[in-house]
Amino acid sequence: DAGVIQSPRHEVTEMGQEVTLRCKPISGHDYLFWYRQTMMRGLELLIYFNNNVPIDDSGMPEDRFSAKMPNASFSTLKIQPSEPRDSAVYFCASSPYRELNTEAFFGQGTRLTVV
Amino acid sequence: AQSVTQLGSHVSVSEGALVLLRCNYSSSVPPYLFWYVQYPNQGLQLLLKYTSAATLVKGINGFEAEFKKSETSFHLTKPSAHMSDAAEYFCAVSRGQGGSEKLVFGKGTKLTVNP
User: Which residues contact B115 (CB under 8 A, 6 or more apart)?
Assistant: First the structure.
């Protein structure tokens, strides 16, 4: 398996623009997680899905952030409008639900810079 | 709610020296604990996980961690550091109240290995 695939790897955009980050989880994984990593706050869980259904979006910072999972093989994280403080590395991870101690598998991340 | 605290945001050791990275957890139910490693510009990779089968857990690259319930700790160790161990290490916990499936990460510890 190719692992979790994120695109783009790098994104530079101007403040106010819409940004869409994409994720393809590992086939057969029931859970998908979106994390944001910054120097100040570390790794923060933004939202996670189970079988394409959002379970917990309490980590989504503002209404400017939205996430969708239209099918088992694709998810998007959208920021509209983007702001400089959204600059961070965004990770997608997926996990098969076997037991609660099953680990999550991470993608390479998307480095977002908002100028 | 579950949480982890990593003591020391930076740890520096000499090549060949013992590596000790500290992690304490907070959970009202038996936790599932993980250590991940992140190399520069990469995603997170699982080092090892605690599954309750054994308190001493061996992982990849010679790392191991011991679960101590009395101390609520899950410290990561390696007897002899190698230059290639330089990376950032994250402790994570899942399954807090309500059996949440989400992974909560510590702030991370950056390990530097000096020649």
Answer: B14, B15, B83
Contact between chains at B45 and A45 (C-beta distance less than 8 A): no
Question: What is the distance in angstroms between the Cα of B56 and the nearest Cα belonging to chain A?
Answer: 16
B107 touches chain A (CB under 8 A): yes
Structure tokens given for A26? 């590992």
CB contact under 8 A, B101 and A31: yes
For the segment A54-77, what is each residue's pLDDT rounded down to a tens digit? 998 999 988 999 999 999 999 999
CB contact under 8 A, B44 and A50: no
pLDDT in tens, B21-68: 999 998 767 788 999 999 988 899 999 998 777 889 999 999 999 999
